[in-house]
Design goal:
Low-confidence stretches: none
Number of strands: 0
Strand content: under 5%
Radius of gyration: 17 Å
Structural class: mainly alpha
Order of helices and strands: HH
Mean pLDDT: 85
Helix content: over 70%
Number of helices: 2
Shape: elongated
Length: 50
């Protein structure tokens, strides 16, 4: 978690490009986690039917 807090702290002190870069990293990470959760739920649902 220290990496996340460091990113947020540095985001406040960075340039405009850095701010949008960190924001893009968080959005990309959220998409990856969401896609993983959807796949896990889908696989659990399919396993129950077998």
């Amino acid at each position: 978690m220290s990496i996340v807090s460091e990113l947020v702290t540095n985001m406040g002190h960075s340039t405009e490009q850095g701010f949008f870069g960190v924001t893009a990293i968080y959005i990309y990470m959220a998409i990856i986690v969401s896609a993983a959760l959807v796949r896990v739920r889908h696989n659990i649902k399919n396993d129950k039917h077998h």
